[in-house]
Each structure stands twice: as structure tokens, then as C-alpha cells.
Amino acid sequence: MSSDRIVGIDLGTTNSLVAFMQGESPVVIPGDDGSNLVPSVVALDENNQPIIGNAARKHLTETPERAVYSIKRLMGRGVDDIQEELKFFPFRLAEDLQAGEVLRIKLGEKTFTPPEISALILRQLKRNAERFFGAPVSKAVITVPAYFNDAQRQATKDAGRIAGLEVLRLVNEPTAASLAYGLDKKQNGIVAVYDLGGGTFDISILKLHDGIFEVIATNGDTHLGGDDIDNLLITIALDDTLGDLGLDLRRNAEAVQAIRNAVIEAKIALSSQTSVKLDVELPGSQRYLREITREQFEQLIQPVIDRTIGPCKQALKDAGLKPEQIDEVVLVGGSTRIPKVRALVKELFHREPHTGLNPDEVVALGAAVQANILGGGSEATENMLLLDVTPLSLGIEVAGGVTDKIILRNSTIPASSTQFYTTQVDGQANVAIHVLQGERELAKDCRSLARFDLKGIPPMAAGMARIEVKFLIDANGILHVSAREQRSGKEAEIQVQPSYGLTDEQVEGMILDSFDSAEEDFRQRQVIEARNEAVTILAALDKGKKSPAWGHLTTDEKKKIAKMEKALIAVRAEDDYQAIRKAIDALNQGTTRLAELMMDSAVSTVLKGKTMDEADMGEGPTAPHPMAKAEFE
Amino acid sequence: MRAVHFCESCGKVQPPAPVDYFTFFALPRKLNLDVAALEKDFYELSRKLHPDLSAQAGSQEQEWSLQQSSLLNDAYRTLKDPIKRTQYLLKLEGVELEEQSKSATEQARSTGELKKQIVPPDLLEEVFELNLQLEELRTQKKMGEDDPALTEEIGRQKLELEQKLEELLRELKYRWEMWDGMIQRAYNGQPVSEEERKQERDKMVDLLNRRNYIRNLVRDVNEALEN
Predict the structure, then answer these.
(1) Residues 6+ apart with CB under 8 A from A454
(2) Do A164 and A66 share a structural domain?
(3) In which domain, by residue range, is A295 found?
(4) Pairing outcome for strands A328-332 and A189-196
(5) Which of A277, A280, A385, B151 is a plausible cystine mate for A288, CB 3.0–4.6 Å?
(6) Residue A600 is a catalytic residue
(7) Could you tell me the CA-to-CA distances from A252 to A104, A142, A248, A256 in Å, in that order?
(8) Which pLDDT tens digit goes with each residue over A445-485?
(9) Residue A575 and residue A539 share a domain
């Protein structure tokens, strides 16, 4: 048994999180800015070094040509699939894209595939976890929308590998949420998970039975979410400025981004207020002002949220259930904070939805639960087992361009199907198989997954060969194909041409600084981070010495602090990050009373127990914020 | 009786034995089946065979676990559904169901023809009439016209077809009794002639073909009404 910590990762359209099982309950690991959510934004700085998360967000407005968000929308997709996306998202495709090639996005002068950009986000989460544990992390469970197809899943797995993570399992987001919910509730019954996130929608219906989480049906739309609502509001603002001011901002990435930030804020505010005022500064020192009432907002978004009705009804139908038979509806995803969405869910399922979970965090928490189960389990997860399904039917193209379905949607995975093929002409050595995913009758309306060429069939008369081809969907929802010629017993060679996606060699070449997970690199990073922290706390201490609070300490206390300060300065220059951390912790402990004294008496009661490092608010949060530094007299 | 799925002493998953779905669950080849007990068995086996439980094990054990649990899931999916269960048993008995059989699919594949649809003779007239009405409905919808009388008439026929489906399922369940009785007799050592076996099979094949045909018809009606 390996004792490696396995983390759970929610790789979201808007935000990403990493969590792990601490004792009996899952917890989110915060980033170094203290925030649980890492915005799924990647930017390149002027030295082409990647910046991820909150720190990258300001680049969206300042250097939009060097930043990207919502990359999840492009995972596992081809150029033809994303024409709609390109109208609304400022994705800049590489100019030299070849037909059939995996998409590449431009950041500054460099180009990246969507899995590479996702990998940068994953690597940030990995580092956050490593910093938290003080040990390397190399294994993860990553969540994906339940309705993700094979190519989108494969792209996510590739992203993990590029980030230096062994992806032990891809878990469907609504199912992960149900694990977190079930861990808490421990009740048998039928649960529906309605998951409306930043860019994807999923509905999953599960049967919870003595620790078994059996998905009965799932449905969704991998291009439906809060992003679509934002785009509606942005379009209106752009129309307004064009109409009223004659100002065409559609090509002005900075202005569009400023408007985007403002409408997102307004959207969030409208969940708790009945009206909100938009106020955006436009180029040419003009301002865009507009009031939006909740009523107007709800009218506007109705068509978007109505698109969740069809999948919900289909899932109920597939499960063979009536809304009344659902015991609880669990809400997941930031967009379910919108009152109108909650009203819609209530109408669909004839009951008040369960809102007791943090819709932003529950998927990551569930991923941590699954990571714990895969790691061998603990008392809390004993007896817990997830039985998930494949969201889309798997088919093969047969004569006439028709899809012959061989594994139906909502089949519990792993699932398999064995098909037999033969040859049409004497001595035929190859047979081509076209694998499809989707519900439509005609092959052209389904998603092409891959073309398989069975090669090396021993020479025989036409129709004599009997080639057994086994299609297997694994627990990640990813397809595997193997073939055997039955008469000769020879394994037939399979050559796969994925319709979308990277080859193994390509992924290999992309692995981010392949030594990233190596001990030495990890250690060096830890040393640098520990040193930085030492600088921060020593500076804070200098400040403390100058404050009146210093005078209130006893000579003995001051002596002790001075000793610890010396100790930290001494180890700081060394390469032993554990020693530096120890010295930091000691100094932090030793200065608790100083920190308390430094606070205003009213504040000190609130912050009791906080260490000086945390209490020293003079530095301000590390995340960028629009406020100027406060002045004190 | 049950195939060995995991080692009794160490609990490790074993490579899957090439068994049929009934044997996998240690069930006789009978068609009446306690679905609740099957579910319980399915959950119990899942707790031992699912790949989640061998995520940290060696690659060989992981591979076996993947094979075993896919076999478990395929078997459960097939046996819990009355129609799929009947079709599967007939396949084990060597019957190729005319319409959805692999050979028909393969033939269609090689000749480029669509799969054959056999119209049950006693339904011929009714189906002919219904198809005409559906065609009319589609034409009307294309022109943006609406004929409530026609829609109502088609809706009525749809109800009738659905009733027929239920009736067929009842008939099928009656055939199950006959089949299971025969299997039980053979198990008790009484002679069962190949002729009798064939007769029972043929009756079920006929019922399944009729059911399949009517189900497709209901699907066509639904599509015509919805579009």
C-alpha cells in the first residue's frame, strides 16, 4: 500500500479547487493567497512565465492578449465544434492550425493546447497542496462534467499527466457532489443532483443504498452555464455603447473584459438584491451606466435556464421515475445561487431543493472523498462505493452511415460489448472500424471518437476471418478497444486515430518541467517559499518592535523573541526548508502576545489566537484588489 | 455453482472465467427471477470487484478487476431487464433473433441494405393504415397545418399499441412459466424433448418480434406527434 496522499481536484470552468480528506471529513486546501477558489485563469507575464488564478485575473483587463479563461469549454473539441464559442469568448486561435490538429490558443506570442492550459491550473493546485502538506503530491482524482464525452475526458486526463499528476480516476461532478452529500447525510433514498456551473450543466439521478451510490441516469449540456448569462449581459452592453455612443467595443478586448467583470458582479448582486447599477469606465473617459432590476434579469436569462429542463426530463424518463419519487434535489454549481434557477428546480421536481451545501466547494469535497476511497478508505468512507454510468451511447458506423449502438447510455461502468467482424474479400488484411458516441441514428450526427484499423489479419478466404473486437468503457468513462482473430487466435493490431485529442507522444513532450514532481525540485521550491515567509515575518517583527505594543512586553518575553529571531535569521540562509519552517513556527508562537497587543482592543478579541504573521494586516492581501492602500495617521 | 470471482482466502480479484451471465450470478437458466435478490447480489459483488477497490493494487489485479466488474455490470444490466433477459437466454439457446440479431446486422453491413423488419401478419392492415396517417400528419406539420381530429385519432391508436405491448409482456411472462417448468423438469431428471424446447423457444421469439415491431411503431408515432 502506498501512503501517498491522493488529492481531489475540481477543475472548473470558472474556478478550480483542491481538497483532501482530513480525518473524517473533506476539506479544501487554500492557495497561498488564502483563497479556496483558484480562478481558472491563465496568463503569461512579460517574461513568458505563466501566472495562474487570482494573480492572473488582472491580466484579463490589462493584457487580454496574454490571458485566457473558461478554457474548459475547448477541452477535447475541434475547430468545427467551437464556432459558436468563438463568437462570445475572446479565444485567440493559433493562425497556423492544420486541419485535424488539436486546437491551440495564443497567449502573447506562444501557443498552447487546451490540455496544456488546464495543466497549468492543475499544477498550481498541486503546488498549493504540496505547500499545505509539506510533501510532494503526485496522485489525484479529477472531476469532469457527467456529460463530458470520451474526447473531453481524455483531454482532462492528458492535462493531469502534463501537470505531473497520476490521475487515478475521473469522477463525474454531480456524482462527486453526491458523495459529499451522502457522507454527511447517511440516508438511503433517491437523490437528484442539479449542477449548473460556469460552463456546464449536469443532472444526475442516484440511488443511495447503504453506502452504495448508484447512478441511475444522467444527462446534461457541456456548453451551458453562468458564462452564457454573462455573455447575454455583455452583448447588451456592447449594443448599448454602439447604439448610444457610436462606440464599437467588440474588438476592444480590454473594454469587453471590464464590462465582463462588471456584469458578473451585477449578476451575483442580483441574487440578493432586487436591482443593481452597472457603472463601467469606457475608453475615452466615458462611463456606461445602467440599472438592471431582478425582474429584467430573470426575463433575460429565462431562455438560458430553460435549456436545463429538457435534460432533467430526459434523465427522469431514463430513470423511469416521476418527480414525486425523488427524495431530495441537491444544488451544485455557482449558478444555482440565482433565485430564478432555484424556482425552476422547485417547479421541475415539485419540492424545495436542498441548499445546505456550498455549491462552489461540494464537488471538490466529493472528489476528496473518492480519493480517500481509492486510497484504501477510512472509517468515514468505509462501505462507500460509487457506481457511475456512461452518459452517452457508444456506437459503430454500419453500412448506410447508420449508427449501431453497442453500449447504451446510462449503462453502469465499467461496461463492455463484444462485436464480431469478418473480411469482405479474399486475403483482406485490414478492417476499419469507426467508433461513435451519441444518441442520433445517423453516424454523421454522432460524435466521431476514433477510427480503428484492425491490421495483420492472417490471409483467409473472404468471410472466413472471425475477428472479435471488445469495446470496454472503464470506470473513468474512457473507451478501450482490443481485438483478436478467433480462428488463428492472433491478437489483431489496432491502430487508433483519435478524431480529437493528443497522441501519447504529444502528451509526453508536453509534460511540464518533467522534473516537477522530483524531490529535488520540490525541495528547492519549498526552500524558496519558506525563505519568503521568513522575510515576511521578520519584517512584521521589525514593525512590531517600533510599535507601542513592544513596550508592554516583559524583558523576558523580549529576550525570548530576540533569540528566536536570531535562530530564524541563522537558518534562513541554509537549504533546509523544514528547519526554516520550524523557526518560523517558533517565532510565530513566540510573538502571539505581541500580535494581540498590537491590535486595537476591540479587534484583539476577534483575532485572539491568530499569530502575528496573520494579524499583521499592514501588507494587505496578496490578491490584487481595486482599493488603494489605506492611510493611517 | 457460482464462478470464482475472487480468491476465498486472500480476497483478491481473480481473472474472469468465460461464463454466461446466469452462471456468473450462480442462477439456473430460468426466466422468472427475483430482481431484488439479484440487486442485492450485484451490490455485494460490486463491493468486491469494482476497480475502485484495487486502485492501489498491481496492474494485473487492476486489469482483472476491470474485466470482472464490466462482466458483472453487463450481466446485471442484461438479467434485471425482462426483455433483455429473455433475449439473452434465447441467444444462449442458439436462437438468432431475426431483427436484432448480429447476423442480420452483419448482413446489413456487408450488403448495405437496411435491416429486415418483419410485420406480424395480423397487424398488416392496421399498420398500413397507421403509416398512412403518420405520413399525412408529417406532411401537415411541414405545411404548418393542424388537424386536431387526425392527431386525436393517432393518439388513440398509440394508446391501443401501448396496451398491446403490455398484453405481450403478460403473454411473455406466461411463456416464462412454461419454460421454467420445463427446465425444472429436466433438472429433476425427467425427459424434455428437443422438440418441446424448440417449441417454447419459438413462441418466445415470436412474442419478442411482435413486441419489437410494435415498440418501433410507438416510437415512430411519438416522433411524428412531437415534431
Answers:
(1) A421, A430, A431, A432, A433, A467, A469, A483, A492, A493, A494
(2) yes
(3) 226-303
(4) parallel
(5) A280
(6) no
(7) 22, 35, 8, 6
(8) 888 888 888 787 888 888 888 888 889 999 999 988 888 87
(9) yes
Minimal-distance CA residue of chain B relative to A139: B56
Q: In A, residues 130-189, which contact B (CB 8 Å cutoff)?
A: 168-169
Shared domain for A73 and A172, answered yes or no, is yes
Torsion of CA A425, A431, A435, A439, to 10 degrees: 10
A475 vs B76: CB contact, 8 Å cut-off? Answer: no
Q: Checking DSSP bridges between strand A38-39 and strand A15-22, what pairing results, if any?
A: antiparallel
In a shared domain, residues A416 and A378: no
8 Å CB contact of B111 and A399 = yes
Pair A282, A175 in one domain: no
- A152 belongs to a structural domain: yes
pLDDT at B9: 67
H/E element holding A159? helix A150-162
Give the one of A2, A209, A420 whose C-beta lies nearest to B43's C-beta. Answer: A209
Q: What is the ipTM of this complex?
A: 0.82
How many other CB atoms are found less than 10 A from the CB of residue A133?
13
Chain A residues with beta carbon closer than 8 angstroms to that of B76: 412
Nearest CA in chain A to B106: A421
In a domain, A215, yes or no: no
Q: Is residue A217 part of a domain?
A: no
Cα–Cα nearest to B79, from B20, B135, B18, B16: B20
Q: Cα(B86)–Cα(B90) distance, rounded to whole angstroms? A: 6
Helix, strand, or coil (residue A570): helix
Q: What is the pLDDT of residues A21-68, one digit of tens each?
A: 998 899 999 988 889 999 999 999 988 889 999 999 889 888 889 999
Q: Tell me, yes or no, whether A627 lies in a domain.
A: no
Which chain A residues in 459-498 lie under 8 Å from chain B, judged by CB atoms? 472-475
Pick from A452, A487, A510: which residue ends a domain? A510
Q: Which residue of B has its CA nearest to A470?
A: B67
Residue with cell 449501431: A404
Residue A327, pLDDT score:
94
Do A439 and A409 touch, CB atoms closer than 8 A?
Answer: yes
Which CATH number do you get for residue A368? 3.30.420.40
Q: What is the CATH number of the domain that holds A273?
A: 3.90.640.10
- Retrieve residue A70's grid coordinates: 473558461
| Interface probe, candidates B12, B42, B73, B102, chain A, greatest A C-beta count within 10 A | B73
Quick one: pLDDT at residue A522?
67
Q: Are A584 and A533 in contact (CB under 8 A)?
A: yes
Number of domains in chain A: 4
Please tell me whether residues A476 and A372 are part of one structural domain: no
Looking at A510, A529, A548, which one is the last position of a domain? A510
Is A428's Cβ below 8 Å from some Cβ in B?
A: no
Q: What is the DSSP letter of A329?
A: E
Q: Is residue A195 flagged as an active site residue?
A: yes
b/e per residue A76-111 (b: at least 16 CB within 10 A) = bbbbebbeebeebbbbbeeeeeeeeebbbbbbeeeb
- State whether A529 and A445 are in the same domain: no
Ranges of H-type helices in A163-218: 173-185
Q: Do A411 and B77 touch (CB under 8 A)?
A: yes
